[in-house]
Specification:
Elements lengths: L1 E5 L6 H9 L4 H14 L20 E7 L4 E8 L5 H11 L4 E3 H10 L10 H14 L2 H6 L6 H7 L9 E6 L5 E7 L20 E4 L3 E7 L1 H7 L1 H10 L4 H14 L8 E7 L4 E6 L6 E6 L6 E4 L1 E2 L7
Parallel strand pairs: 3-4, 10-13
Antiparallel strand pairs: 1-5, 1-11, 2-3, 2-6, 5-6, 7-8, 8-9, 9-10, 11-12
Helix pairs in contact: 1-2, 9-10
The protein binds aspartic acid.
GO molecular function, one term: hydrolase activity, acting on carbon-nitrogen (but not peptide) bonds, in linear amides
Protein name: Asparaginase
GO cellular component, one term: cytoplasm
């Protein structure tokens, strides 16, 4: 058994580990942990603690994947919903679809009894408003939001403020793998923007036969490279876990147009190995690891990537 999650997972990592220890199914274990992260206001990139879009509204993304079946459920740009990872799981289990977005996702949440919640914290609203006042002229502020947002997206979109999503990966007592993600995405993103967290193959992927991977930071890059799928496919093709992650990093490093930024890749394989590699991150990146035999989850430090183009 193994459980791997990023640093933002602290409110839920122990419960996920305890559930795995008591032989719960992997998806149950990681969804229980993610629910704690979504409700923790101190986690400033997920659920209640997240940042709003450019219009000051919360829009959440989440995804789950069952490595036993390669079943996927995801939701993107969902308003007024905090347990979005649970909503993503319900998409997988109750609909003939894989992904729902926006108002359709919110309608489905109503149908399965998830309450509408105003998730925007007063502190998040204040910081958003201050940023707007800094970037807009007096005339633009008076007309807001009936102004073109695209020019503003170049200056106001703030990936630096959102340093994370939460991602959980595991392999359970029956050797089945699962992946789950949840985030409010980039602070001040253009309304309707989807990051990688609801996109299977980009922000997450799991195939119990080979491995599972999940990414944080610049979704605009991991979507272009299908980074999580790349890692798992490379393992399938015979790469070691470290080589599979290095291959995915090389692909990210090859991008030289569009928005470029940091990426962190988290991955496990069917041999019980784990790997967390940070690419273009200025600060040290930490993650949570629990494996069979460990009393408690431990906070560890990621390996900085060394590519031919970086570092
Ligand atoms: N990957 C997330 C996104 O692009 C954000 C993050 O993890 O920092 O929405």
């Amino acid at each position: 058994m193994i459980l791997l999650a990023n640093s933002e997972a602290w409110p839920g990592i122990s419960e996920s580990a305890d559930l795995l220890k008591s032989r719960s199914a992997g998806l149950d274990a990681i969804l229980a942990g993610i629910a704690h992260v979504e409700r923790e206001t101190k986690v400033r990139s997920v659920g209640y603690g997240g940042w709003p879009n450019m219009l000051g509204r919360m829009e959440f993304d989440a995804g789950v994947m069952d490595g036993a079946t390669r079943g996927v459920g995801s939701v993107g740009a969902v308003p007024e919903t905090v347990p979005v990872a649970a909503l993503a799981r319900a998409v997988m289990e109750r609909l003939p679809h894989v992904t729902l977005t926006g108002e359709g996702a919110r309608r489905f949440a109503d149908e399965i009894g998830l309450p509408r919640e105003e998730a925007l914290l007063e502190d998040s609203r204040r910081v958003w408003r201050e940023r707007l006042e800094k970037e807009l002229s007096r005339e633009e502020l008076a007309a807001f939001p009936d102004i073109p947002l695209a020019p503003l997206s170049r200056t106001i979109t703030d990936p630096e403020r959102v340093r994370d999503t939460t991602v959980f990966l595991c392999r359970d007592a029956k050797d089945q793998m699962a992946a789950a993600t949840s985030t409010s995405g980039w602070a001040w993103k253009y309304p309707g923007r989807l990051g990688d967290s609801p996109i299977a193959g980009a922000g997450f992927y799991a195939d119990s036969r080979y491995g599972a991977a999940a990414c944080t930071h610049t979704g605009e890059m991991t979507i272009r490279c299908a980074t999580s799928r790349t890692v798992v496919l490379a393992i399938k093709l015979g790469f070691t876990l470290v080589d599979a992650v290095d291959l995915a990093v090389e692909e990210l490093a090859e991008l030289d147009t569009g928005f470029l930024g940091p990426v962190v890749i988290h991955a496990i394989d069917a041999g019980g190995n784990h790997e967390v590699t940070s690419f273009r991150c200025q600060d040290a990146i930490t993650y949570w690891l629990w494996k069979e035999g460990m009393a408690e989850p431990e906070l560890r430090t990621a390996r900085p990537a060394h590519t031919q183009r970086e570092n």
